[in-house]
Design a protein that fits this description.
14 helices, seven-stranded mixed beta sheet, about 575 residues, 25 strands
């Protein structure tokens, strides 16, 4: 939904004056959503000059993405603010269950129980196997997370964040890029010159269009639910939890023939993000605030007072990935590069990983540590992951949206009871499949990338709902908990890490061209899990190389950085 409310002060919502926007920088970022803000943090932490512009008045007012996957939380942990984000959203003891109902005040069909944020923080260090991780998922709306990303970016001296500005044109001059920008008011236009331009400017990306790059994949997929025209209502329902006979849940899904919807809790007290499928006879242009409130009431099943905070239409049924993720000195990320139907919560999380992947590579090239050829690995790595993740999201959407309610699903009859029992069994299985996805979360790989040195081993086969940790180069490093409840990931450096699990007595000299942290860990468990004496971890916490002799590390790094 587009923002309906502008911020009126100098807090994270206010626009910048023209004299605040630098005319020259290293990286021009277009788009101030999660991808752009995360990339600003990644670059700014490395001292790279960034000018970020976004035509919105500030960070999101309306609810958007609702689920931060565990891998994204691990990436926030790298930056030091995972705990800050975990404290946001709903109350710490609020259950993050996914619950399915005929209507929210009527029959409960199925429930997939998940821990509250307090429970997640307490239980994480006791988990193993598929969920051995530094962080568990967190159910928090993007509208609360964006201000954290923005605030941390604005603390970095090399970063200039500018909302209320739009880009009107850009060009790649071969040895630099230029962007024409102006305040949304239209007064005070100027040109910014940079070394690189990144378009994180959404599905209608001006940057992607200027590159002549198209989306590929499926769009306009029709389903009984989450396929076609959708209507979103950001609503305050003060009596929701007092009036309902069921335990609270984070994700509320209504399953009936009149008004199917999903409605995640936003604050755990009274605010909700309602999304419903429009019927063929419903004209979105004729929907008023009153009729929007009635839609929400129909899903609830009782006429509670519904205060509409904002409302808009959107389209489900997208499974789109750009033909390329960049050209020359210009790159794409987030929704500009891939567009999801939101089942599985994969769009926003894929966008954050885009930023982390591209950030260290741009910084290495700008600092002269890497050849520009390193940047070719961005598309080589991220585009296959986008194809993978959009396919998973489509699979979840098909599972939910192609399963229609039986005509008798709401009847208080034996046939109605049987229909609810069948639907409950199906939806319980669907919930487990969509919301317990460690294989999707942790199993993404960059096999065949020039920024990975293969060792001839095969990674475990990928499955959605289980994950087998593996140190086969190209994937996430296996996680371990160390003494005193410390995560192995907390030992890694922000940039490169050499994990030494056995010593051969050699002295590894400091490699002055990069920031390399050496971590000596004498652990039989770690040696068994990692399968080598030495493991090189990339800045984005991906295994780049492993072997039993680190003396050739300079040559290995040269190859990884595009010099080989």
């Amino acid at each position: 939904m587009p923002d309906r409310r502008a911020h009126a002060d100098s807090s994270p919502g206010s626009a910048s004056r023209s004299d605040d926007v630098p005319a020259q920088t290293q990286v021009i970022l277009v788009g101030g959503g999660p991808c752009g803000l995360m990339l600003a943090n990644e670059l700014g932490r490395r001292g790279v000059g960034v000018v970020l512009i976004d035509q919105k008045p500030g960070t999101a007012f309306n609810p958007q993405a609702n689920a931060t996957q565990a891998r994204t939380m691990e990436l926030y942990r790298r930056l030091g603010f995972a705990d800050e984000i975990r404290a946001l959203g709903m109350p710490p003891d609020f259950p993050t269950d996914i619950a399915y109902f005929t209507r929210f005040a009527k029959y409960e069909l199925a429930r997939f129980k998940l821990p509250s944020s307090r429970e997640a923080k307490q239980m994480i260090s006791s988990l193993s196997g598929s969920w051995s991780a530094a962080e568990l998922p967190h159910r928090c709306n993007q509208k609360f997370i964006e201000p954290v990303l923005r605030r941390h970016a604005e603390l970095l001296p090399s970063v200039s964040v500018n909302y209320g500005w739009r880009m009107t044109a850009w060009r790649d001059a071969g040895d630099h890029v230029c962007a024409n920008v102006e305040p949304v008011s239209g007064v005070g236009a100027r040109t910014i010159r940079g070394a690189y331009l990144v378009g994180a400017d959404g599905p209608r990306s001006l940057v992607r269009q200027g590159l002549g790059i198209r989306y590929t994949g499926e769009t306009g997929v029709s389903r009984d639910f989450v396929g076609g025209r959708m209507y979103a209502v950001y609503a305050r329902i003060a009596d929701f939890y007092r009036a309902l006979p069921h335990a609270p849940a984070w994700m509320n899904v209504s399953f009936n023939r009149e008004r199917r919807c999903f409605m995640p809790a936003v604050d755990g007290t009274s605010e909700f993000a309602f999304h419903t499928q429009l019927k063929n006879h419903e004209d979105e242009k004729s929907i008023t605030e009153t009729s929007a409130a009635r839609m929400v009431q129909a899903a609830i099943g009782v006429p509670l007072e519904v205060q509409v905070l904002s409302r808009d239409t959107w389209t489900a049924g997208h499974s789109l990935v750009a033909e390329h993720f960049g050209k020359g000195r210009v790159f794409l990320g987030g929704d500009a590069a891939h567009l999801f139907t939101p089942t599985g919560g994969l769009g926003y999380n894929t966008a954050v990983e885009d930023a982390v992947n591209l950030g260290w590579k741009l910084a290495a090239v700008l600092k002269g540590q890497a050849s520009p050829r390193l940047l070719e690995s961005y598309e080589a790595e991220r585009r296959p992951l986008a194809l993978r993740n959009t396919a998973y999201a489509k699979r979840f959407a098909d599972s939910l949206g192609l399963y229609p309610p039986a005509p008798e699903i709401e009847d208080d009859t034996p046939r109605g009871d049987a229909a609810r029992r069948r639907a409950g069994e199906y939806l319980a299985a669907h919930g487990r499949a969509e919301f317990n996805i460690p294989g999707v979360t942790f199993g993404g790989r960059y096999d065949g990338s020039p920024a990975v040195v293969a060792d001839g081993t095969e990674p475990p086969p990928e499955t959605m709902n289980t994950y087998l940790p593996s140190a086969c180069p190209g994937g996430r490093p296996p996680h371990l908990w160390l003494a005193e409840g410390r995560s192995l990931y907390d030992c890694f450096g922000f940039d490169w890490t050499l994990l030494r699990l056995a010593s051969h007595g050699e002295e590894l000299k400091r490699l002055t061209s990069i920031d390399l942290k050496i971590v000596d860990l004498k652990s039989e468990e770690a040696r068994d899990v990692y399968g080598a004496d030495a493991v090189l971890i990339r800045p984005d916490q991906i295994v780049a190389w492993r072997g039993n002799d680190a003396r050739s590390l300079e040559q290995i790094l040269a190859k990884l950085m595009g010099h080989g």
